[in-house]
């Protein structure tokens, strides 16, 4: 034990004698050192690890702050469009009513989600609601199919309902959203998918921090006629005169297709707004977390630094006193 | 006790209203109770999704006597041109011809062709050129006109209209497939309607 102590002191003297290591000794609290508790016995506490973490956390904070700003500016752009499109679906609902609990054989759930991530929980809620609607409409002779818009819902739904997905549409927001694009999309869906009722699931933008999952129902012309005949909410439909077109069926067909494209347009815009709003709040909480983490790391860093300075001082002083005594 | 009170208050405020934008109508509790009941039975863990009827102000009931004014909602995908404006008469370009709508009109669903929509309010007449759409006239003297594209007539450029008409007539004569013929025919229809809108 005494030999070990002497050996330790011997090693410690070496830095004090030669000039080069003296600078090393003086600058060791500041310069990078690595924790080395081997047989040599000299312990330098590492600040490098903590410093690396601090740098990366600071970068993350800057990135998330920038993403929040970008999302805020995109939100402003889409928000005016969304508010202007809100009047579009109201006349249809006033005429054809809103019957989410209608009993049909073939229902198609159109789930609208985003392509990019980092936008909070809106895509998961949309998928959960779609699955819930499917469960609601399950029964003998009833079937539910999916039409998926957006990568995020595709990833979630493909896992357990792959055979029920009819159409997948992605990269919706490559160009700014406009009615022509959405009506082409609606046309594709109407051509390729047989339905009795279309249920469009999206997140309605209520405010920057609140998004309400909503389901809009569009019924096929046959079901509209059936509901009108049976009375209830659509009972007044027969009172309406038809202008243009030969039969009521033709007009109803055109009306339903037009309704679908209008409702889709509004739904896609609302979802885009909700996506940007959710991304803003997600990035905001992320940069706040990064700030907190940075504070804690700074405290750890300072503690580590001070501890290593104290250790150095103790070693020097004990070495000096051993030299004298 | 106070916690309970605040919880009750919070519940009523969230179920009743919503801190929404001025353009959004307040959420009225006219939700489909059938839907909510069946949802809570099948999927008890999630809140039921909202439906469009909760975001709309309910329409007024049919009055017993004919009202003096017609309320017009003229909407386009990117704007609501007129919303709830009280007017004397509107003339819509239905596929069967120009149709005049006065307060107390029979409820009608009319498909529209490209043409002029004129809104008469007292002595003012505002004319819009519509591309096509639907006009829904309800029993309570509310007219909803939904068009895909509409411009005020004074914004149409006569030179461009003539050029467009010539282009599409030429395309129609040289069209080979049914699809091309249909597209060219649509172009000709719209441009000749625009032409008559400017001149007539």
TrEMBL record, chain A:
Keyword Transit peptide: yes
Record-linked Pfam families: ATP-synt
GO MF entry, a single one: proton-transporting ATP synthase activity, rotational mechanism
Keyword Nuclease: no
Subcellular location, record wording: Mitochondrion inner membrane
PROSITE patterns (alphabetical): ATPASE_GAMMA
InterPro entries found in the cross-reference section: ATP_synth_F1_ATPase_gsu, ATP_synth_F1_gsu, ATP_synth_F1_gsu_CS
Keywords of the record: ATP synthesis, CF(1), Hydrogen ion transport, Ion transport, Membrane, Mitochondrion, Mitochondrion inner membrane, Transit peptide, Transport
Gene3D superfamilies reported in the protein's UniProt record: 3.40.1380.10, ATP synthase, gamma subunit, helix hairpin domain
Membrane-related topology note: Peripheral membrane protein
GO cellular component: a single term: proton-transporting ATP synthase complex
HAMAP family per UniProt: ATP_synth_gamma_bact
Subunit structure: F-type ATPases have 2 components, CF(1) - the catalytic core - and CF(0) - the membrane proton channel. CF(1) has five subunits: alpha(3), beta(3), gamma(1), delta(1), epsilon(1). CF(0) has three main subunits: a, b and c.
Database matches in NCBIfam families: ATPsyn_F1gamma
Free-text function comment from the UniProt entry: Mitochondrial membrane ATP synthase (F(1)F(0) ATP synthase or Complex V) produces ATP from ADP in the presence of a proton gradient across the membrane which is generated by electron transport complexes of the respiratory chain. F-type ATPases consist of two structural domains, F(1) - containing the extramembraneous catalytic core, and F(0) - containing the membrane proton channel, linked together by a central stalk and a peripheral stalk. During catalysis, ATP synthesis in the catalytic domain of F(1) is coupled via a rotary mechanism of the central stalk subunits to proton translocation.
Family: Belongs to the ATPase gamma chain family.
Name of the protein in its database record: ATP synthase subunit gamma, mitochondrial
Lineage of the organism: Eukaryota, Viridiplantae, Streptophyta, Embryophyta, Tracheophyta
């Amino acid at each position: 034990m005494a030999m070990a102590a002497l050996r330790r002191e011997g090693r410690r003297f070496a830095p004090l004698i030669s000039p080069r290591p003296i600078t090393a000794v003086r600058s060791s609290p500041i310069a990078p050192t690595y924790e080395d508790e081997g047989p040599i016995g000299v312990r330098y506490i590492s600040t490098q690890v903590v410093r690396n973490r601090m740098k990366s956390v600071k970068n993350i904070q800057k990135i998330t702050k920038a993403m929040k700003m970008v999302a805020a500016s995109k939100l402003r752009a889409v928000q005016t469009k969304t508010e202007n499109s809100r009047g579009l679906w109201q006349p249809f609902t006033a005429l054809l009513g809103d019957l989410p609990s209608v009993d049909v054989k073939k229902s198609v759930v159109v789930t609208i989600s985003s392509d990019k991530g980092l936008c909070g929980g809106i895509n998961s809620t949309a998928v959960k609601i779609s699955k819930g609607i499917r469960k609601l409409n399950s029964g003998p002779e009833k079937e539910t199919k999916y039409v998926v818009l957006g990568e995020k819902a595709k990833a979630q739904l493909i896992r357990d309902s792959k055979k029920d997905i009819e159409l997948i549409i992605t990269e919706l927001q490559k160009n700014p959203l406009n009615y022509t694009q959405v009506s082409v999309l609606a046309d594709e869906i109407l051509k390729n998918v047989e339905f009795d009722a279309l249920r469009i699931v999206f997140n309605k933008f209520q405010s920057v921090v609140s998004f309400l999952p909503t389901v809009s129902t569009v019924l096929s012309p046959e079901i509209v006629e059936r509901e009108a005949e049976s009375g209830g909410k659509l009972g007044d439909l027969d009172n309406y005169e038809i202008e243009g077109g030969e039969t009521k069926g033709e007009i109803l067909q055109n009306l339903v297709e037009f309704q679908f494209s209008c409702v889709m347009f509004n739904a896609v815009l609302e979802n885009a707004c909700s996506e940007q709003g959710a991304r803003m709040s997600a990035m905001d909480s992320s940069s706040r977390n990064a700030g907190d983490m940075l504070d804690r790391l700074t405290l750890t860093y300072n503690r580590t630094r001070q501890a290593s300075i104290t250790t150095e001082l103790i070693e020097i002083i004990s070495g000096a006193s051993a030299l004298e005594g | 006790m106070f916690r309970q009170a605040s919880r009750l208050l919070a519940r009523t405020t969230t179920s009743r209203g919503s801190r929404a934008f001025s353009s959004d109508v307040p959420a009225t509790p006219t939700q489909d109770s059938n839907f909510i009941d069946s949802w809570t039975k099948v999927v008890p863990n999630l809140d039921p999704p909202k439906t469009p009827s909760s975001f709309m102000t309910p329409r007024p009931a049919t009055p017993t006597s004919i009202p003096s004014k017609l309320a017009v909602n003229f909407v386009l995908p990117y704007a609501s041109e007129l919303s709830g404006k009280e007017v004397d008469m509107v003339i819509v370009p239905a596929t069967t011809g120009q149709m005049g709508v006065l307060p107390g009109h029979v409820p009608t669903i009319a498909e529209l062709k490209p043409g002029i929509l004129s809104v008469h309010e007292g002595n003012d007449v505002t004319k819009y050129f519509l591309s096509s759409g639907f006009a829904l006239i309800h029993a309570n003297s509310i007219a909803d006109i939904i068009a895909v594209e509409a411009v005020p007539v004074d914004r149409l450029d006569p030179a461009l209209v003539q050029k467009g008409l010539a282009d599409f007539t030429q395309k129609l004569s040289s069209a080979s497939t049914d699809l091309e013929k249909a597209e060219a025919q649509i172009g000709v229809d719209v441009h000749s309607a625009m032409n008559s809108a400017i001149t007539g």
